[in-house]
Amino acid sequence: MTQYVLRRFGGMIAVMFIVATIVFLIAHVIPGDPAAVMLGSNATADDVDALRHRLGLDAPLPLQYLDFMRSVVQLKLGESIFLNRTVTQALAERAMLTTQLTVMAAGIAIFLGVPIGVISAVKRGSAVDQVATAASMTAASLPSFWIGLTLIEYLAVHWRLLPVAGYGPPEAGLFDHLRYLVLPAIAVGIPNSALIIRFTRTSMLDVLHEDYVRTARAKGLAPGTVIIKHAFRNARTSVLTVIGLTVAGLMGGAIVTETVFALPGVGNLVVSAVLRRDYPVIQGALLVISGLYVLINLGVDLLYAVLDPRVRY
Amino acid sequence: MSEAIAAVSAIEPRAASPGWLLLQRLVRRRLVLLSIIVLLVVAFCAIAAPWLAPYSPMRMDVVHRLGAPSSAHWLGTDDFGRDVLSRCMYGARLSLAVAAMVVVVSISCGTVLGLISGYVRRLDGLLMRVTDALMAFPDILLAIALMAALGASMYDVVIALGTVYTPRVARVARGATLVLRELQFVEAAEALGASDRRVMARHLLPNLISPLLVQGTFIFAFSILTEAGLSFLGAGVPPTNPTWGNMIAGAQQYMDQAPWLIFAPGLCIAFTVLSLQMLGDGLRDALDPRLRRLT
User: Fold this and answer.
1) Other CB atoms closer than 10 Å to residue A25's CB: what's the count?
2) pLDDT of A82-117, one tens digit each?
3) Are B262 and A150 an interchain contact pair (Cβ–Cβ within 8 Å)?
4) Contact indicator for B210, B26 with CB cutoff of 8 Å
5) What is the CA radius of gyration of chain A?
6) Contact A263, A187 (CB under 8 A)
7) Are the beta carbons of B141 and A251 separated by less than 8 Å?
8) What would the DSSP string read from start to end of A182-199?
9) Is the four-CA dihedral B17, B22, B27, B32 of positive or negative sign?
10) Interface confidence: ipTM more than 0.85
11) How many CB atoms are located within 10 Å of the residue A207 CB?
């Protein structure tokens, strides 16, 4: 087990190394001179050259690459061009909101997806199953921003159940704070529940055919006990896999949905950074988000052993 | 003699081609048939938009701005008085063209990478770590970052989304190649002295067609969604040309007065993507008999 964890950790570092290289390449083929962008249109050529030198942008590319990698290892992400603060600060200020949104959306996706998946596997072929399958496919076919806009229109504007957009400061109390996140979380959670429903259904169907499920039924156990204790327990690992897979979808959904709801999160930061060519922020956000994704997936892999004692490394 | 052959071939029914068999198997399922019909209709509207569309997508009519659906404008008009139905049709052209090109780019690059990774093996470790790294970015995040680096033309969108989806294809192609390379026909080809290139092109590639067909259908669907997301965020195809995504983005502020402005393009996306997903599922079931019991 320790050996496995170490090996996976090594693999993760290799992947992060390549991620950092990709981020460097993307940032350095961005057209336009960041120094010129920072100084605005009134700057003289000398000013621009001086700043380029200060930022190390006049160094040969391999040298810049080495510098970049060194600062990544030291977790220094540089300074934003427009926000007058370091990238780490900018990300830290907004990380909380995005984390809350992603966790809430994950909760919705899981609490919607897993039970529906289990029920439609158990009642396979019934009307419930057909409706669930159709609904999950439709949900997966809708862009999350479109769901968000529709929710705003009906739940917030017409029925005034929830705030339209924006964000309650944490000082206003937890309830008021989270109220603003309900609609965005639904918008992100619904499309992502679709994959969970389908995966849960398939893995439950697989398990329900097993001999031990038949044995449990033959013993006369209550149907609910058979499904939860005997079948679902064995389908859990593949459900875990799909939850790991949806993490990327949830983060991506959060990025777009924050724009719809005008939430000041990491997604909003990235989108405005891209539109303004604030390349240190783009670099930093790409690194942090993909790093999180890799970490979460490592966590999921390690959880297998906890949930399923048969998994040996 | 030749008469005899002609007589025999007239009696013997010609063996159906694999493509024909697949099509027969697909249309037997009603939902798959329905999705094929929807896709054909959408594709026809896109291709024939210049002849079918009732108005030019750019023609402004400020007097009738934000008009509700009527007999003159079936899906209403937008904030510049442009006909929404016409814009949806022209939007389909761009959205489908981008998605189709993304499929071509990602399937070709991904297949080559997957074959090399799975068969030649020398580059396997490196190539798979690179695909891992590319897949560690959420689709839309990698796409907008690439758009910042590339520019903002339709072809830049294709390159960005192609880069996003190539690793997925490479994964599928590699997985299938790893299974196939152990089979006897590959061993036989190797024993006959076939070069690596020949084994990959002549013996492995034809066997990858089924999984790639399924994957291609799903990538088509995902590309439509991601392209819409890019356009919505303002990082996609320039807004002068209508796409389903930038129509929704433009309609945001009029949602209350003119809900049809976001419903029309939204439903276009939903129906197209849903049909593609059903077709993909149908293809997977039809091509892989082992999965059929699960449906």
Assistant:
1) 12
2) 777 888 888 888 888 888 888 899 999 998 888 898
3) yes
4) no
5) 24
6) no
7) yes
8) HHHHHHHHHHHHHHHHHH
9) negative
10) no
11) 20
